[in-house]
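Hi there, hope your week has been kind to you so far. No rush at all, and the record is pasted right below.
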Amino acid sequence: MPKGAGSSKALRQAMSSEDGVTMKLSRQRTVRYGKRTAPGGYSGAMSRVGFFAGSFDPPTNGHVELVRRALCLVDRLVVGIGQHAHKQPWLTVEKRSELLRVVLPEGVEVVVFTGLAVAAARQAGAALLLRGLRSADDAAGELPMARANDVLDGDIETVFLAASPDAAHISSRLVREVHQSGGDVSLFVPGPVVAALPAP
């Protein structure tokens, strides 16, 4: 047997389970796939599930752009609205859920979660935790969190999506500040979000 063939075979070993297929990559890490359940799919086919977490307060054009691109990477996408006890939201979680269901592409699931995003991703059956990056400042904060998430749950891989030049300047905080100062935010958020914003 060629040198290293045994270890390579072990790394490629796949083990069936009720939830789909678990592919053994190492002693520490596995990649989990669920069974495809979307219309037109077939039982037993492997599908990749992604989880995109954020506060979405409010949803912006940048969020919509990242979700559309994320759909090209996964078979099922779950968008999770994080609730934080120490943060006072601008829009209620119910309003944000309603707006996301309106402005995001059909088929995207919207859920609300508390606690860690990586734990919510596992609960959703996701193998990928998707994060958007607008700048180097975002990366400086996201990279340590990605490493921490890998320690907390090595089965879930963090994938970064760089914002497009047209959307890299947009943030929920920017939208709030512009709107509360009486500015026009229609270039930053979808129409239904503009109509739902509280009076300045």
